[in-house]
Amino acid sequence: MDHRVTQFDEMGGPDGATRAPYQKLAQWLAGTPPELLASRREQAELLFRRIGITFAVYGAQEATERLIPFDILPRIIARSEWTALEKGLVQRVTALNLFLADIYGKGEILKAGKVPAELVYGNPGYCPEMAGRRVPHDIHVHIAGVDIVRTDDHGFYVLEDNARTPSGVSYMLENREVMMRLFPDLFSMHRVAPIEDYPDELLATLRSVAPPKASNEPTIALMTPGQYNSAYYEHSFLADKLGVELVEGRDLFVKDDVVYMRTTEGPRRVDVIYRRIDDDFLDPLTFRPDSALGVAGLIGAYHAGNVTLANAVGTGVADDKAMYTYMPDVIRFYLGEEPLLQNVPTWRCREPEALSYVLDRLEELVVKEVNGSGGYGMLVGPHASKAQVEEFRAKLKAHPDNFIAQPTLALSTCPISVAQGVAPRHVDLRPFVLSGANGVRVVPGGLTRVAMTEKSLVVNSSQGGGTKDTWVIDDAIMGQA
Amino acid sequence: MLSSTADNLYWLARYMERADFLARAIEASRRLAALPKAYGGEDTEWQSVLLSSGAAAAFENTGKPATEANVVEFLTFSRDNPSSIRNCLECARTNARAVRTALTVEMWEAINGAYLELKAMEARRGAYSSDELGRFLEFVKQTSLTYDGGAYRTMLRNDAYWFSRVGLFIERADNTARLLDVKYHVLLPEKELVGGSLDYFQWSAILRAVSAHTAYHWVYRTSMKPWLVADLLILRPEMPRSLISCYESIVRNLDNLARAHGRQGAAQRQARGVYGKLETLTMESVFQGGLHEFIQGFISENNRLGALISEQYLF
What we know:
- Chain A: Pfam families: CP_ATPgrasp_2 (PF14403).
- Chain A: Residues 74-451 form the Circularly permuted ATP-grasp type domain.
- Chain A: It comes from Methylocystis parvus.
- Chain A: This is Circularly permuted type 2 ATP-grasp protein.
- Chain B: Pfam families: Alpha-E.
- The structure holds 2 protein chains of 2 kinds.
- Chain A has a domain at 345-407: Dna Ligase, domain 1 (2-Layer Sandwich).
- Helix content of chain A is 31%, strand content 23%.
- Chain A is built from 15 helices and 23 strands.
- In chain A, the strands form 6 sheets. In chain A, strands 3-23-22-19-18 form a 5-stranded mixed sheet.
- In chain A, strand 20 (432-436) and strand 21 (439-442) form a beta hairpin.
- In chain A, helix 3 packs across helix 13.
- The relative contact order of chain A is 0.19.
- By secondary structure, chain B is mainly alpha-helical.
- Chain B folds into 2 domains: 1-155, no CATH class; 157-314, no CATH class.
- Chain B is built from 15 helices and no strands.
- Chain B has helices at residues 3-33, 45-52, 56-62, 68-76, 85-98, 105-124, 130-154, 159-185, 197-209, 213-220, 226-234, 243-261, 266-280, 283-289, 291-312.
- Chain B is globular.
- The termini of chain B are close together.
- The mean pLDDT of chain B is 88.
- The interface between A and B is medium-sized, with 22 and 24 residues.
C-alpha cells in the first residue's frame, strides 16, 4: 500500500533528479555542514519560544500552550506554478461567494438542480437568519483558507475549503520572519516573493466592505474568544499588524442596533468586525444563550446594516466536506468556466452506490466526517488497525450522510531537517485568499504544513504536525549556477 | 484605548512591581533574621514580612508555623497564596497575553521569558538551599528591571504607557509604605535602645532591601538614624522609591491621561490631594502621630486612588 503514498518529492522529483526550483537550495545544502543546520534548528526553536508563538491545545492539561514544530528548510514553488495555482484559487473563491449570495438569496443553483436543496438547508452550517439578507458587496467569505495538496508535478488538488474562520496566517508571516533572521544568505540567492503586505491587504479588504453608512475612516476591530482559544496568539498578532483593537465580547455592547467598544474615553462605534469566533457564539440573543463570548444584540446590528462581520454569518454551509464535492459544478454554474483546480476524487457516502463502494474498500480509503476539522473524526484506512476500521464501518453504516471518502492520496513530500540530515515528509499548503470590494487576491505563499513523523499523512497542528516557510520564487533564477 | 486593555496594563504593571517588592521584602527579612541572636532579637522577622506584604491572614489559613522555610515557600512558589511571586508573575503574563498588542516586543519577551524560566525553576526545586533562594530572588528583581527598562525605553508615550506607569507607581508607593512598616512589626526587644546597634541593623536592612544604602549616605552624610531613613523613603523627591516621588509620577501620568482624553476627574483630584499633603509634611509631624499610623493612613488613601481610577476609566 505504501508505494502509493510516497511517490512525488517536491525537491527530488519523480526520478530523484533535483527539480528546478530547488536547485540552489540543493547546492547550498550540499555545501552546508550538518552542525550548522542543527544549530539553526535550535536557534529557530529559541526564537519561536521567546516570541511566544504558541497555540493552545484543548484538553491537554500540562502543555496548554505548545510550540508548533518548525522546519527550517523552505518549501519552494516556482512563480509559473504559483500563477496557475493563484488563478485557480481566485476562481474558486469567486464562485464560493456567488454560491453563498445565491443560496441566501434566490437559490438559482438549487432550482437548477445542480446542488441538492436538502444538503444546503439541512446543513448545520446553514444559517436561516441570513435567508433573504444581503451583505455589503455580496461578499460572504472575506478570508478563505484553501487547503491544497499535490501528488505529482502536474498540478494541485483542493483538499478542503475553509470558509469560516481559517487560521494559520500568523505562522505564514512569522515563519518568514524567522527564516529571514536565520538564513539571510539563502534569501540573497533566491528571489523570494514577499508576503509581508498580507496585513495591509487584509486591512484594505476589511475597509472595503464597511457598511455603506460608515464614515470614510471605518473603525475595524478583531474579535477573539479570548486567550484560552487555540488561535489566540494569531488573533493578537493580527490585531497588532492591522493596527486595530483586539476585542472580546465583553469589550463590546450594542445600543439602538449600533455596536460600540468600551474605551477609556467612552463608547466608540465599530463598523467592521473581523471575527475569529464561530457563528454559534456571536450573539446569545440569536444563537447559543449559554455563550458568554459574544455580544447581545450583535446580529440585530448586523441585520440593520450597521456593522459588517467578516466572514459573514452562515458561511459554514460552503465549507463542509459534503458541499466540497459539488464545488466543480458550482464553478461551472456561476462562472461558466471549467475548474482550474481539481477536487480530490470523492465518494459521497450519502449516495448508496458510493457507500457500498466505500464499505468494500475501507482499508484503502480516507474517510472523513463532513463537519469534522483538525484531523479529528477521520479514518486513514491504510494506517488504521482492524478494530479502528470496524469501528468506523459501524459509524458509517449508522450515519452515511455524515461522511465522505477519498483515496489515500500520494501527498507530495518535501525534505525537512532532522537529526540525521534531511528526510522527506508529507506536506500540504494553505494559501489565504482575500475577497473585498476591491477584488480577490492571494499573497504569494501560504502556510505549508508538514507531517513531522515519517510516513504520517496527518499535517494538522492539533495532531502534532509542523510548519515550514513557503517560497514563491522567480523562474528566472532557477537553474543558474 | 479599550477599557479592558487599560485595566490589563495597569494590573500587569502592579503585578510585576509586586513580585519585585516581595523579593526585596524576603531579602530584608533574611538579613534581619541573620542578625546575631546575642542581640536578643525575638524571632518576629518572618511574621513581619507576612504582615507587611499583607499576606498574614492567608498564611494563617495554612495552619503552619511562621518559620523561614514555610514563609519563604508561601511568598515565593505557593499556589495557595494569590500574591506569591509565582502567582504574581503568572498573573502578569496572563494580563500581558491579553494585551500583547499594547506591549512592545522587549516587554513581552521579558515577561514571557521570565515565566518560562519560572516554570522550569518550579519544576526542579526541592528544598531551597540558601544560595538557590538568593539566586531566585535575584532573578525576580532582574526580571522586573528588564521589564521596567523595556517599558521605559521602548513604549510610545501614549495612554498605554501612562496607565502602566500609574499602576507601577501606585504599587510601588504601597510597597515602600509596607516596607517601612516592617520595622514596626519587627519588635525591638525592650532592653535594646532605640538607636542602639540592633535598631541600626534593622534600619540598615530596610535600606539595603530597596538598594538605598548608598543613597542614604549621599543625601545625609551621617550615620543611620531612623527618622532620616523614614524621611528618605517618604519625603525625599530625589529618592525614586519615596512616597512623594511615586506621587509626583502618578500625578504627572494621570495629568497626561487627562490631557489626552480632554477631561479630568476624581482620580486626578485624589492624586493631587495626596501629593499636596506629602509636599507640606514634615518628619516631626509623622513621628508625633506615629509612623505606623501614618503608613496605614497612606495605604488606604493609595487604595482609594486605585478604586477611583477603575471607576473613572471604566475598568
